[in-house]
């Protein structure tokens, strides 16, 4: 009787864990050729709220890849305070996107993003 109770308890525990482990993980992973530069501190929330829907979906589905940590370069798009950004893609082999910080005058709920 004791063994049956233990087995039922283990079975119940496994059943409760199954839904959580079968869901896709939110967020991005580092690509095999990821370049660290200034790191990723504070950037996941910006990618999650990117102006690019495909990138937001990739973040939500856990398929996006970090290509390069915080760095500067290129032109400063409208809505960004400067050219500091991260490079990320919604999926392996996808288009590279650059997600920027928001300027103080940017009232959009999304972070400026350029993809090409």
Describe this structure as you would to a colleague.
The chain is of the alpha+beta class and 116 residues long. 31% of the residues lie in helices and 25% in strands. The model is unreliable at 3-23 (pLDDT under 50). Strands 1-2-3-4-5 form a 5-stranded mixed sheet. It has helices at residues 2-22, 43-48, 53-61; strands at residues 28-35, 64-71, 85-89, 96-100, 113-115. The protein has one domain (24-115). The protein has 3 helices and 5 strands.
Average pLDDT over all residues: 85
Helix-strand sequence:
HEHHEEEE
Shape label: globular
User: DSSP helix count?
Assistant: 3
Strand order of the largest sheet: 1-2-3-4-5
Highlighted features:
disordered N terminus, globular, signal, 116 residues, alpha+beta, five-stranded mixed sheet
Helix-strand blueprint:
Layout (H helix, E strand, L loop, with lengths): L1 H21 L5 E8 L7 H6 L4 H9 L2 E8 L13 E5 L6 E5 L12 E3 L1
Parallel strand pairs: 1-2
Antiparallel strand pairs: 2-3, 3-4, 4-5
What's this model, at a glance?
The chain has helices spanning 2-22, 43-48, 53-61; strands spanning 28-35, 64-71, 85-89, 96-100, 113-115.
